[in-house]
Amino acid sequence: MSPDEEMLSELRKIRELLTPAPGPAAAKGLSAEFKAFLEQYKVLGLAVAFILGIYLGNLVKALVTDLVLPIVALALPAGTDINTYMVGPFGVGDFANSVLTFIVVALVIFIIVKVAKRYKIG
Predict the structure, then answer these.
(1) What residue spans define the domains of the chain?
(2) Which of 18, 48, 54, 56 has the most beta carbons within 10 angstroms of its beta carbon?
């Protein structure tokens, strides 16, 4: 095989690799289109993640309310409820509770994402 034929053969291989593959055939019928939609956008996985996210939020809120806030309450004067804590005319206890819950939720999500990246899950 001559050098020109080898080069031409290599160029043909490169052209084949660079030619885009044809897209999936268009789905026919409403049920087929709906199935294609679910598969293309991975709606089921998104729904599962959304539902798990809601319950993860509830779990972390319970963690903050039942375990973290009693520890924080030790720093407050005796008999003071963190949710009704007032600083002058301002009620800051409920806001502090929400901020603390947000920080713990963000930390838990950060740890989950970090572990998922380490094990190449998502």
Answers:
(1) 3-118
(2) 56
Whether 90 and 38 have beta carbons less than 8 Å apart is answered as no
- The answer to whether 101 touches 64, Cβ cutoff 8 Å, is yes
Q: Render pLDDT for 7-48 as a digit per residue (tens, 0 to 9).
A: 889 888 888 888 887 766 665 788 888 888 888 888 888 888
Q: Three-class SS string for 51-91?
A: HHHHHHHHHHHHHHHHHHHHHHHCCCCCCCCHHHCEECCEE
pTM of the shown model? 0.54
Strand partners, 90: 87
The CATH code of domain 3-118 reads 1.10.1200
Q: Pick from 21, 32, 35, 103: which is nearest to 63 by CA?
A: 103
